[in-house]
Write a structure and sequence with these properties.
Blueprint: H1 35-40, H2 51-66, H3 73-86, E1 93-95, H4 97-104, E2 112-113, E3 116-121, E4 124-130, H5 135-139, E5 146-150, E6 153-154, H6 160-167, E7 174-180, E8 188-193, E9 195-196, E10 202-208, E11 211-216, H7 223-238, E12 246-250, H8 259-269, E13 274-280, E14 287-290, E15 302-306, H9 313-323, E16 327-331, E17 339-345, E18 351-360, E19 376-377, H10 414-428, H11 430-449
Parallel strand pairs: 11-12, 12-15, 15-16, 16-19
Antiparallel strand pairs: 1-18, 2-9, 3-4, 4-5, 5-6, 5-7, 7-8, 10-11, 13-14, 13-18, 17-18
Helix pairs in contact: 7-8, 8-9
Length: 450
């Protein structure tokens, strides 16, 4: 059965820890232990159950009384909780009410920033991927870049959520980032003007008659709906030319997003079988997600493009289509973010982002730290054209998007312009060129295999 829409919603919960001290009256002292009991008993100086909490209380008291600056108990405890969660893994974190509200805006509503997905790895803030059509993408930030400072403050001094809060800001304001490209030894300072981060997550374009490039930039609340709209438009356009023949599903530099959208996007291309399973420390945090047959299932041959910036939900889709032998995966090994986080709201408006499980592809492979290895490994080879002077990848103009608004003066040349756009993109993107050739050959290869 298809998973309920509510499986990614979290019921609020709160765990309170109380440090208690007990004093045993002499009259109620325990009787002397026998020889066997004494042998098995813990040493008298062994740490007790509440010793760690007692030590925390002592340190909190000392810092409050003697630290050089006046700090509130709330700030100290919040920092302690942040440190506890960040010590678990790069993706667990404590969110203040302000941070919790900001996080909710990632998948719904409009927010302003530079447009990057980041992670904390070995104490360094790493760019997982720049989001297309954003200031960060246009400024040249790349997967694997290290953010050294934000507005002059060292990023290593901040929590991951504090880094996010400082990079975001009102539209039109500027943020200064010092970054180190993963292929450079010299830091670079970039001044980036914040803008509205686009929430459109699907782009599409005809490459040749019957063959379409469909790009998913993230997995937000409307991704599956946008994907179906793009596919319907492609089917309608290709009816005059023997119908839809092949799809290149581009997940490169897609940082992921909502789990339910990863499942439903996979289901668009699958009629049955497993999509993904999540397994935690017990059965309560485990679940299997499966595909259902639907009237609008897509049966067209598919090639999926991935690279090191494809993470989380992108890896779920690529893994499902690969293991179900529904698509051929082409490109470079994906990021390897295969852990499941639950967002647990707390009564005061704050929240916990807690890792509770790992993703597994249909054949039982864990994505975590391994990623998805493509069926065909094809490294990206940067190539500039006359209209690609800044060397950016995957550029696409408004006129090439499905359902864009036409300029009345440009209607006559629209078809010609779209063809030129596709040619330019194929000329500068060797992975896309290879994917197009492979998807055109898939039906013949399938016949040979059978």
């Amino acid at each position: 059965m298809k998973s309920p829409k509510s499986f990614h919603r979290i019921v609020p919960s709160l765990v309170c820890l109380l440090a208690l001290t007990f004093t045993v009256p002499a009259a109620l002292a325990f009787p002397a232990q026998g020889a066997d009991e004494a042998k098995n008993a813990e040493p008298r100086n062994a740490p007790g159950k509440y010793d760690a909490l007692k030590r925390f209380s002592q340190v909190l008291n000392i810092v409050e009384r003697h630290y050089v600056k006046d700090v509130t108990q709330t700030d100290l405890i919040n920092s302690s909780v942040k440190g506890m969660l960040q010590g678990l893994d790069p993706h667990s974190n404590f969110l203040t009410p302000e941070e919790f509200k900001e996080m909710q805006q990632n998948t719904s509503g409009e927010f302003f920033g530079v447009g990057i997905e980041i992670s904390l790895e070995n104490g360094q803030v790493i760019v997982v991927t720049p989001i297309e059509d954003t200031p960060a993408f246009r400024a040249g930030l790349q997967t694997g870049d290290v953010i050294l400072s934000i507005n002059g403050q060292a990023a290593q001094e901040l929590s991951l959520q504090e880094v996010v809060s400082r990079i975001r800001g009102p539209k039109g304001t500027e943020v200064e980032l010092t970054i180190l490209h993963n292929d450079s030894k010299t830091p670079q300072t970039l001044r980036i003007v914040r803008d509205a981060i686009p929430l459109i997550s699907v782009k599409s374009k005809k490459l040749e008659d019957g063959f379409y490039w469909v790009r998913l930039t993230r997995f937000s609340e409307r991704t599956t709906e946008e994907l179906k709209e793009a596919l319907k438009a492609a089917e309608k356009e290709s009816k005059k030319m023997e119908g839809l023949k092949g799809i290149v599903l581009d997940l490169r530099n897609n940082p992921g997003g909502l789990l339910d959208q990863a499942v439903s996007v996979s289901d668009v291309f699958l009629e049955q079988g497993a999509i993904v399973s999540i397994k935690g420390r017990d059965d309560k945090n485990g679940h299997d997600y499966r595909a259902d047959k639907q009237a609008d299932d897509v049966h067209t041959p598919v090639v999926v493009l991935i690279n090191a910036g494809s993470a989380s939900a992108s890896e779920i889709v690529a893994g499902a289509l690969r293991d179900q032998k529904r698509a051929l995966i082409l490109g470079e090994r994906s990021f390897g973010k295969g852990s499941v986080q639950k967002i647990i709201p707390l009564p005061d408006g704050s929240g916990l982002k807690l890792t509770v499980a790992l993703y597994y592809t249909p054949n039982g492979s864990s994505i975590q730290a391994e990623g998805i290895v493509p069926d065909m490994e094809v490294p990206f080879e940067a190539r500039q054209t006359s209209e690609d002077k800044d060397g950016q990848r995957f550029q696409i103009r408004e006129q090439a998007l499905s359902r864009h608004l036409e300029n009345a003066k440009g209607k006559k040349n629209a078809a010609k312009d779209k063809g030129a756009e596709a040619g330019e993109q194929l000329a500068r993107d060797n992975q896309l060129r290879m994917a197009l050739q492979v998807v055109k050959s898939l039906p013949k290869l399938q016949e040979i295999k059978n």
